[in-house]
Amino acid sequence: MSISSKVIFALGSNTDRVRNINKAKEIVNELFENVIYSRQMLTIPIGIHSEDFLNCIGLAYTTQEYSNIRLALKDIEQLCGDEKSKRAYGTVNLDIDILQFGEKRMHETDWERPYITELMKDIEVYIK
User: Fold this and answer.
1) How many Å apart are CA 123 and CA 128, to the nearest integer?
2) Which pLDDT score, from 0 to 100, does residue 1 have?
């Protein structure tokens, strides 16, 4: 029997926000079973000059390896039209960051952001 790992990920978009977040969720729902999402929250951009971001957090469990999940989420960014060249101009169609895989936390500074703290409250009850 395969061991299931917890995956907590953050989604953000500052361009065609609702469409890109919803498209990403549809694709993520094909990757994982029973994904739990936080509410969506508008936030001011951090480190770039752009429109506000629409953000949410997802929680899922998987038996897949971290590297496979990471690549799949990066593919979802591209499917939503995200490109490095656009980011250079402050356009982020979709950004997905894995905040936690199994017991390992990543993007430590993101965990300190008020919107991450607030959105985590929406999914904490579902964490095993």
Assistant:
1) 11
2) 55
Residue 113 exposed, middle or buried by CB count within 10 Å (0-12, 13-18, 19+): middle
What count of residues does the chain have? 128
Question: Helix H segments across 1-113?
Answer: 17-31, 66-79, 84-87, 108-111
- pTM check: above 0.90: yes
Beta strands in the chain (DSSP E): 5-13, 36-37, 41-43, 53-62, 95-101, 104-105
Burial (0-12, 13-18, 19+ Cβ within 10 Å), 45: middle
| Token pair recorded at residue 54 | 């629409």
Q: Please list, in sequence order, all residues whose beta carbon lies within 8 angstroms of the beta carbon of residue 42, skipping any fewer than 6 positions away.
A: 52, 53, 54, 55
Spatial separation of the C-alpha atoms in residues 111 and 99, rounded to whole Å? 8
Angle between helices 66-79 and 17-31 (to 10 degrees): 150
Mean pLDDT value across residues 57-65: 97
SS3 38: coil
